[in-house]
Amino acid sequence: MHETRCPKCGAQTLITGNALRREKPYCSVCGWNLERAKEYETKTLKQLPLAILWIGFVLGMMGLFSTPPKPGIIMFALIFVVVLSLSAFSSWKNLNAIKNSQPYVKAPENVAIPNTQLPDRAQIRITFERLLSLSKPRRISLKTSTRLLLVVFLIIISGITTGLVLSHRSSLPKGNAGNTLTDIAFFVVFAGISLSIVGGMMRSVVRDRRLLSNGEIAVGVIVGQKIVGGKSKTSRITYEFKDGAGKTYAGKSDDETRELYEDMQTLVFYDRDNPAENVALVGATVKLEDS
Asked: 147 and 106 share a domain?
């Protein structure tokens, strides 16, 4: 796991969450991200009673229609109680640790590092200067994750389309117009959803190729970060940057590295004539061959 350093003083950070969820890091030395971490754990604790009521209702309904209660329902209830209790204890423990933190107004000299000398910021600056020196168009290629998504999606589309065609052919001898119309309607809906997803992905690829190969570069600052999604969680960042004229613009992106948090920096590529069209390097569908 990537070691998260405080972007303000350079000290090793602590982090909220537990083995099942890894959320906000914070610095107990200078107080960076302390309030955000406190808000997250407080929100988690407030959501626990609602979770108990909801799961209790579901289990109650399952037990109502299963008399006597099945062993599986009882086992599920016990597992739920244990998991919820551990989560509540973890959030309570983290919240107490955050509240008991007493950051210095100024970090001690043995851990304080000037912002310009922080390793992450220094690396960003070095990469920024090197990319500025490259001639355009810059050499780029699709990310491995983008290739995999395209291949998987094409396989899914091909499989479902083949299934629909075979199903339609098998129903032809029966001459059932209703089945034919149902197959056609399902295919039209599926085709529309598929085209919208593929179209959105291809638009992102075309945009990212153009911006990374010929766009301008800026150093953006993360102003917001949150975890979104269900089982496949994604880190979503909001950032701000200044164009060549010094005007501030904002953008949103997924962070595939899951290493960026508030006040950290990231490289942003933007259209010189329309800086509102931009993409963070960590969230682009393509990559630079020289990065």
From this structure: no
On whether both 72 and 160 belong to a single domain, the answer is no
Domain assignment of residue 218, given as a range? 114-291
Query: How confident is the prediction along the chain (291 residues), in pLDDT tens digits per residue?
Result: 456 788 888 788 877 655 445 567 888 788 788 888 777 777 777 767 776 676 666 666 666 555 565 666 666 666 766 776 676 666 667 667 666 666 665 444 444 444 445 667 888 888 999 998 888 899 999 888 888 877 877 777 777 677 666 666 665 555 555 556 666 666 667 667 766 777 778 888 999 999 999 999 999 999 999 887 655 678 899 999 999 999 999 999 999 888 899 999 999 999 999 999 999 999 999 999 876
Q: 40 and 160 share a domain?
A: no
Domain count, the chain: 2
The per-residue DSSP string of the chain comes to -PPPBPTTT-PBPEEEE-SS-EEEEE-TTT-TTHHHHHHHHHHHHHHHHHHHHHHHHHHHHHHHTSSSPPHHHHHHHHHHHHHHHHHHHHHHHHHHHHHT----SS--TTT---GGG-HHHHHHHHHHHHHHTSPSSPPEEE-HHHHHHHHHHHHHHHHHHHHHHHHHHHHGGGT-HHHHHHHHHHHHHHHHHHHHHHHHHHHHHHHHHHHHHH-EEEEEEEEEEEEESSSS-EEEEEEEEE-TTS-EEEEEEEETT----TT-EEEEEE-SS-TTSEEEGGG-SEEETT-
